[in-house]
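User:
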Amino acid sequence: MQKNSIAIFVANDEVPHNADALYKYKFNSSLFWLTGITQEDSMLILFPDNPDPRYKEVLVLVRPNELKEKWDGKRLRASEATAINGIKTIVWADALPALLQAWMHAAENVYLDSNEHDRKGSWLDTAQTRYIKHIQERYPLHNYLRAARILHELRSIKTQYEVEVIQKAIDITENTFRRLLQFIKPGVWEYEIEAEIVHSFLSQRATGEGYNSIIASGDNARVLHYIFNNNQCKDGELILMDFGAEYGGYNADLTRTVPVNGKFTPRQKEIYNACLQVHTAIVPVYLSQALLSRSIMKKQATSLPSNT
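Assistant: Predicted structure:
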């Protein structure tokens, strides 16, 4: 970050379902990468040049509430959060506003995080976008910068520990695929295959699906993100499956197409092998281009003036 900068990262929303129900909570992956915290209403504030050294890095947590904990489980205590990530200064969310005002007055630049994925398709107002609006309205004269650019660079390089966790997610997914090869047959329903996937993931201690599984038999395979999974698999059809396990906050991603009855027709085999040849030819080209692009980005980053 630039000198005299503060960076603020906020947790994802708890999303309401119907009545008093909520969808299963999904943590903000950037906040998780920085802190290891998967709890709602959390924040991370980094201010390396803070005049008060106690607040150079601050983890913000929701204050434990006995009534809420009776309904949906225990929340982290300060000592437990510190044990996860080593951050010693823990602030309860309801005490943050007064502290943040002093920190903001001492800072010149503010880094805020946002979802900058190239294929982001939703413009739903999120905790991130609402917080960006809130902080810019309250402190309009600061210089606001994008934290995502830095995070994308940092997160693209995996530590050995991260590689091991990703490999575990891959192993769970592979085991599940091999299990499905024994399960799929004419007459089985797409949702039964999905159920086998979830069962296999959880029985191997995955935290669940990394994303909604695509189980597309027959003509459904032409739908790029088919997620209804409610058709019966018929003899002579192909079935396209796209699924991946989540383990330790990291996801695997596997796509395979197999014949429902276990044997390709000559035409199916011809098309399958044509796709396989294209895939095999493209992968090394894609990897070399990605490495080249990354090298160029690093050179550009080191040559930029400090105020850019």
